[in-house]
Amino acid sequence: MISPGCPGAIEPILTILDGKWNLLLLRELFNGTKRFGELRRSLHPISPKTLTDRLRMLEEQEIVTRTLYPGVPLHVEYELTERGQRLQPIFAAMWMWVQEYGACPQKETDDGGQDAEAVM
Amino acid sequence: MISPGCPGAIEPILTILDGKWNLLLLRELFNGTKRFGELRRSLHPISPKTLTDRLRMLEEQEIVTRTLYPGVPLHVEYELTERGQRLQPIFAAMWMWVQEYGACPQKETDDGGQDAEAVM
DNA sequence: CTCCATAGTTCATTTTTTGAAACTATTGCA
DNA sequence: TGCAATAGTTTCAAAAAATGAACTATGGAG
Protein backbone atom coordinates (compact mmCIF):
# COMPACT_ATOMS: atom_id res chain seq x y z
CA MET A 1 0.00 0.00 0.00
CA ILE A 2 2.87 2.35 0.65
CA SER A 3 5.78 3.16 -1.57
CA PRO A 4 8.70 3.80 0.71
CA GLY A 5 11.24 6.35 -0.33
CA CYS A 6 14.73 5.09 0.21
CA PRO A 7 15.76 6.86 3.34
CA GLY A 8 13.97 5.23 6.18
CA ALA A 9 10.94 3.04 5.86
CA ILE A 10 8.88 3.82 8.90
CA GLU A 11 5.83 1.87 7.83
CA PRO A 12 6.03 -0.89 10.43
CA ILE A 13 5.65 1.71 13.12
CA LEU A 14 2.58 3.36 11.70
CA THR A 15 0.19 0.82 13.15
CA ILE A 16 1.69 1.25 16.56
CA LEU A 17 1.81 5.02 16.75
CA ASP A 18 -1.16 6.03 14.68
CA GLY A 19 -4.44 6.94 16.25
CA LYS A 20 -5.75 9.25 18.84
CA TRP A 21 -4.86 7.20 21.89
CA ASN A 22 -1.79 5.18 21.08
CA LEU A 23 0.85 7.70 22.08
CA LEU A 24 -0.93 8.52 25.30
CA LEU A 25 -1.45 4.88 26.14
CA LEU A 26 2.16 4.01 25.52
CA ARG A 27 3.27 6.92 27.66
CA GLU A 28 1.31 5.49 30.56
CA LEU A 29 2.96 2.13 30.11
CA PHE A 30 6.42 3.66 30.16
CA ASN A 31 5.65 4.55 33.76
CA GLY A 32 5.36 0.88 34.59
CA THR A 33 2.89 -1.95 34.67
CA LYS A 34 -0.70 -0.82 34.64
CA ARG A 35 -4.05 -2.39 35.21
CA PHE A 36 -7.01 -1.96 32.92
CA GLY A 37 -8.85 0.29 35.33
CA GLU A 38 -5.80 2.44 35.94
CA LEU A 39 -5.36 3.02 32.24
CA ARG A 40 -9.00 3.80 31.89
CA ARG A 41 -8.75 6.44 34.59
CA SER A 42 -5.51 7.96 33.32
CA LEU A 43 -6.80 8.31 29.80
CA HIS A 44 -10.02 9.46 31.21
CA PRO A 45 -12.57 10.04 28.54
CA ILE A 46 -11.57 6.85 26.77
CA SER A 47 -14.24 4.21 26.36
CA PRO A 48 -13.58 0.64 27.47
CA LYS A 49 -14.11 -0.52 23.92
CA THR A 50 -11.46 1.76 22.53
CA LEU A 51 -9.07 0.88 25.32
CA THR A 52 -9.39 -2.85 24.74
CA ASP A 53 -9.10 -2.34 20.99
CA ARG A 54 -5.83 -0.46 21.40
CA LEU A 55 -4.48 -2.93 23.94
CA ARG A 56 -5.33 -5.91 21.74
CA MET A 57 -3.58 -4.29 18.82
CA LEU A 58 -0.51 -3.62 20.92
CA GLU A 59 -0.58 -7.23 22.03
CA GLU A 60 -0.72 -8.43 18.43
CA GLN A 61 2.20 -6.19 17.63
CA GLU A 62 4.04 -7.68 20.59
CA ILE A 63 4.41 -4.31 22.25
CA VAL A 64 2.60 -5.23 25.45
CA THR A 65 1.83 -8.36 27.38
CA ARG A 66 -1.38 -9.08 29.17
CA THR A 67 -1.26 -11.04 32.39
CA LEU A 68 -4.35 -12.24 34.17
CA TYR A 69 -4.21 -12.58 37.93
CA PRO A 70 -7.09 -14.66 39.20
CA GLY A 71 -8.12 -13.87 42.71
CA VAL A 72 -10.86 -12.36 44.72
CA PRO A 73 -11.32 -9.47 42.47
CA LEU A 74 -9.44 -10.74 39.47
CA HIS A 75 -7.19 -8.27 37.77
CA VAL A 76 -5.09 -7.90 34.69
CA GLU A 77 -1.75 -6.24 34.21
CA TYR A 78 -0.39 -4.76 31.05
CA GLU A 79 3.32 -4.38 30.63
CA LEU A 80 5.65 -3.35 27.85
CA THR A 81 7.64 -6.09 26.16
CA GLU A 82 11.28 -5.68 25.25
CA ARG A 83 10.14 -4.63 21.81
CA GLY A 84 7.88 -2.09 23.44
CA GLN A 85 10.53 -0.76 25.82
CA ARG A 86 12.70 -0.09 22.82
CA LEU A 87 10.25 2.51 21.65
CA GLN A 88 11.44 4.65 24.51
CA PRO A 89 13.98 6.67 22.50
CA ILE A 90 11.19 7.78 20.20
CA PHE A 91 9.28 9.16 23.14
CA ALA A 92 12.42 10.69 24.59
CA ALA A 93 12.93 12.52 21.32
CA MET A 94 9.34 13.71 21.43
CA TRP A 95 9.71 14.99 24.96
CA MET A 96 12.82 16.90 24.02
CA TRP A 97 11.10 18.45 21.06
CA VAL A 98 8.14 19.46 23.16
CA GLN A 99 10.38 21.08 25.75
CA GLU A 100 12.20 23.16 23.18
CA TYR A 101 9.54 23.73 20.56
CA GLY A 102 6.34 22.51 22.06
CA ALA A 103 4.70 25.86 22.59
CA CYS A 104 2.24 25.54 19.78
CA PRO A 105 1.32 28.47 17.63
CA GLN A 106 -2.30 27.30 17.83
CA LYS A 107 -3.99 30.63 17.22
CA GLU A 108 -1.73 33.61 17.08
CA THR A 109 -3.11 36.48 19.07
CA ASP A 110 -2.42 39.44 16.83
CA ASP A 111 -1.26 41.63 19.68
CA GLY A 112 2.32 40.53 19.15
CA GLY A 113 4.51 37.71 20.18
CA GLN A 114 4.02 36.62 23.72
CA ASP A 115 5.34 33.10 23.70
CA ALA A 116 3.72 30.58 25.96
CA GLU A 117 5.58 30.18 29.18
CA ALA A 118 6.94 26.77 30.06
CA VAL A 119 4.16 24.38 30.99
CA MET A 120 6.03 22.35 33.56
CA MET B 1 -8.95 17.70 26.66
CA ILE B 2 -6.04 15.67 27.86
CA SER B 3 -4.78 15.28 31.38
CA PRO B 4 -1.03 14.92 31.15
CA GLY B 5 0.72 12.74 33.64
CA CYS B 6 3.80 14.39 35.00
CA PRO B 7 6.55 12.67 33.10
CA GLY B 8 6.57 14.02 29.64
CA ALA B 9 3.67 15.87 28.16
CA ILE B 10 3.66 14.91 24.53
CA GLU B 11 0.32 16.49 23.73
CA PRO B 12 1.60 19.32 21.54
CA ILE B 13 3.01 16.77 19.18
CA LEU B 14 -0.16 14.77 18.80
CA THR B 15 -1.65 17.09 16.23
CA ILE B 16 1.48 16.94 14.17
CA LEU B 17 2.07 13.21 14.18
CA ASP B 18 -1.43 11.84 14.35
CA GLY B 19 -3.22 10.63 11.29
CA LYS B 20 -2.65 8.24 8.50
CA TRP B 21 -0.47 10.46 6.33
CA ASN B 22 1.44 12.80 8.60
CA LEU B 23 4.44 10.60 9.27
CA LEU B 24 4.75 9.68 5.62
CA LEU B 25 4.38 13.27 4.52
CA LEU B 26 6.99 14.51 6.95
CA ARG B 27 9.36 11.79 5.84
CA GLU B 28 9.15 13.11 2.29
CA LEU B 29 9.93 16.60 3.47
CA PHE B 30 13.03 15.44 5.33
CA ASN B 31 14.38 14.60 1.90
CA GLY B 32 14.22 18.25 0.96
CA THR B 33 11.90 20.78 -0.55
CA LYS B 34 9.01 19.26 -2.42
CA ARG B 35 6.35 20.49 -4.75
CA PHE B 36 2.69 19.68 -4.40
CA GLY B 37 2.70 17.32 -7.34
CA GLU B 38 5.81 15.53 -6.13
CA LEU B 39 4.22 14.89 -2.77
CA ARG B 40 1.08 13.71 -4.44
CA ARG B 41 3.03 11.19 -6.49
CA SER B 42 5.21 10.00 -3.62
CA LEU B 43 2.25 9.40 -1.34
CA HIS B 44 0.44 7.97 -4.25
CA PRO B 45 -3.08 7.02 -3.33
CA ILE B 46 -3.53 10.25 -1.40
CA SER B 47 -6.25 12.56 -2.58
CA PRO B 48 -5.46 16.21 -3.28
CA LYS B 49 -7.91 17.27 -0.61
CA THR B 50 -6.25 15.22 2.06
CA LEU B 51 -2.84 16.43 0.99
CA THR B 52 -3.79 20.08 1.19
CA ASP B 53 -5.53 19.50 4.50
CA ARG B 54 -2.39 17.96 5.99
CA LEU B 55 -0.15 20.64 4.51
CA ARG B 56 -2.33 23.44 5.82
CA MET B 57 -2.29 21.93 9.26
CA LEU B 58 1.50 21.65 9.15
CA GLU B 59 1.66 25.26 8.07
CA GLU B 60 -0.51 26.35 10.97
CA GLN B 61 1.73 24.40 13.31
CA GLU B 62 4.70 26.17 11.74
CA ILE B 63 6.25 22.92 10.66
CA VAL B 64 6.36 23.72 6.96
CA THR B 65 6.44 26.82 4.82
CA ARG B 66 4.63 27.25 1.56
CA THR B 67 6.26 29.31 -1.16
CA LEU B 68 4.49 30.21 -4.35
CA TYR B 69 6.60 30.67 -7.43
CA PRO B 70 4.64 32.49 -10.08
CA GLY B 71 5.75 31.71 -13.57
CA VAL B 72 4.70 29.97 -16.69
CA PRO B 73 3.43 26.97 -14.94
CA LEU B 74 3.27 28.33 -11.45
CA HIS B 75 4.50 26.06 -8.77
CA VAL B 76 4.62 25.81 -5.03
CA GLU B 77 7.34 24.52 -2.79
CA TYR B 78 6.92 23.08 0.65
CA GLU B 79 9.85 23.10 3.01
CA LEU B 80 10.40 22.26 6.64
CA THR B 81 10.86 25.14 9.04
CA GLU B 82 13.47 25.10 11.77
CA ARG B 83 10.79 23.83 14.10
CA GLY B 84 10.03 21.11 11.58
CA GLN B 85 13.66 20.15 11.04
CA ARG B 86 13.95 19.61 14.76
CA LEU B 87 11.52 16.72 14.52
CA GLN B 88 14.29 14.82 12.82
CA PRO B 89 15.54 13.02 15.94
CA ILE B 90 12.09 11.56 16.42
CA PHE B 91 12.21 10.07 12.96
CA ALA B 92 15.77 8.93 13.46
CA ALA B 93 14.62 7.05 16.54
CA MET B 94 11.81 5.50 14.56
CA TRP B 95 14.16 4.39 11.83
CA MET B 96 16.47 2.78 14.32
CA TRP B 97 13.59 0.95 15.94
CA VAL B 98 12.34 -0.27 12.60
CA GLN B 99 15.78 -1.54 11.66
CA GLU B 100 16.13 -3.53 14.84
CA TYR B 101 12.56 -4.45 15.64
CA GLY B 102 10.58 -3.53 12.60
CA ALA B 103 9.82 -7.01 11.34
CA CYS B 104 6.22 -7.01 12.39
CA PRO B 105 4.54 -10.09 13.72
CA GLN B 106 1.49 -9.11 11.61
CA LYS B 107 0.00 -12.50 11.00
CA GLU B 108 2.19 -15.41 11.76
CA THR B 109 2.05 -17.81 8.86
CA ASP B 110 2.14 -21.22 10.46
CA ASP B 111 4.15 -22.69 7.60
CA GLY B 112 7.32 -21.30 9.06
CA GLY B 113 9.00 -17.98 8.85
CA GLN B 114 9.37 -16.60 5.39
CA ASP B 115 9.96 -13.02 6.34
CA ALA B 116 9.23 -10.26 3.89
CA GLU B 117 12.32 -9.53 1.88
CA ALA B 118 13.87 -6.14 2.39
CA VAL B 119 11.87 -3.46 0.67
CA MET B 120 14.85 -1.33 -0.22
C1' DC C 1 -9.51 33.10 -27.13
C1' DT C 2 -8.06 28.61 -26.31
C1' DC C 3 -4.65 25.39 -24.50
C1' DC C 4 -1.28 23.62 -21.31
C1' DA C 5 0.62 22.80 -16.79
C1' DT C 6 0.54 23.41 -11.91
C1' DA C 7 -2.01 23.66 -7.77
C1' DG C 8 -5.38 23.51 -5.77
C1' DT C 9 -11.11 23.56 -4.25
C1' DT C 10 -15.83 21.69 -3.80
C1' DC C 11 -19.13 18.37 -2.88
C1' DA C 12 -21.16 14.09 -2.13
C1' DT C 13 -19.97 9.55 -0.54
C1' DT C 14 -17.53 5.97 1.76
C1' DT C 15 -14.53 4.20 5.23
C1' DT C 16 -12.64 4.28 9.69
C1' DT C 17 -12.63 5.49 14.36
C1' DT C 18 -14.76 6.59 18.47
C1' DG C 19 -18.33 6.62 21.58
C1' DA C 20 -22.21 5.60 25.16
C1' DA C 21 -25.02 2.34 27.34
C1' DA C 22 -26.03 -1.87 28.79
C1' DC C 23 -24.77 -6.44 29.37
C1' DT C 24 -21.47 -10.71 30.50
C1' DA C 25 -17.95 -13.29 33.11
C1' DT C 26 -15.26 -14.74 37.31
C1' DT C 27 -14.73 -15.64 42.13
C1' DG C 28 -15.07 -15.33 47.16
C1' DC C 29 -17.85 -13.99 50.80
C1' DA C 30 -21.95 -12.83 53.65
C1' DT D 1 -28.36 -17.12 46.65
C1' DG D 2 -26.99 -12.69 45.67
C1' DC D 3 -23.63 -9.00 45.88
C1' DA D 4 -19.22 -6.58 45.08
C1' DA D 5 -15.17 -5.71 42.28
C1' DT D 6 -12.53 -6.16 38.13
C1' DA D 7 -12.35 -6.54 33.26
C1' DG D 8 -14.08 -6.73 29.78
C1' DT D 9 -17.97 -7.54 25.35
C1' DT D 10 -21.85 -6.27 22.46
C1' DT D 11 -24.64 -3.37 19.82
C1' DC D 12 -25.80 0.47 17.58
C1' DA D 13 -25.14 5.32 16.67
C1' DA D 14 -22.17 9.35 15.91
C1' DA D 15 -18.17 11.70 14.54
C1' DA D 16 -13.99 12.16 12.04
C1' DA D 17 -11.05 11.22 8.19
C1' DA D 18 -10.26 9.95 3.55
C1' DT D 19 -11.75 9.37 -1.19
C1' DG D 20 -13.07 10.35 -6.20
C1' DA D 21 -14.58 13.09 -9.71
C1' DA D 22 -15.13 17.21 -11.54
C1' DC D 23 -14.33 21.91 -11.32
C1' DT D 24 -11.55 26.64 -10.51
C1' DA D 25 -7.48 29.70 -10.88
C1' DT D 26 -3.25 31.55 -12.97
C1' DG D 27 -0.57 33.21 -16.81
C1' DG D 28 2.16 32.83 -20.96
C1' DA D 29 2.34 30.67 -25.72
C1' DG D 30 0.16 30.02 -30.01
Automatic annotation (TrEMBL), chains A, B:
Pfam families linked? HxlR
* SUPFAM superfamilies given in the database record: Winged helix' DNA-binding domain
| Protein keywords | DNA-binding, Transcription, Transcription regulation
Which sequence ranges are marked TM in the entry? none
- Top-rank taxon of the source lineage equals Bacteria
* Domain spans labelled HTH hxlR-type: 6-106
Q: PANTHER family this protein is in?
A: HTH-TYPE TRANSCRIPTIONAL REGULATOR YODB (PTHR33204:SF37), TRANSCRIPTIONAL REGULATOR, MARR FAMILY (PTHR33204)
Q: What is this protein called?
A: Helix-turn-helix domain-containing protein
* Organism of origin: Cohnella silvisoli
Organism ancestry: Bacteria, Bacillati, Bacillota, Bacilli, Bacillales
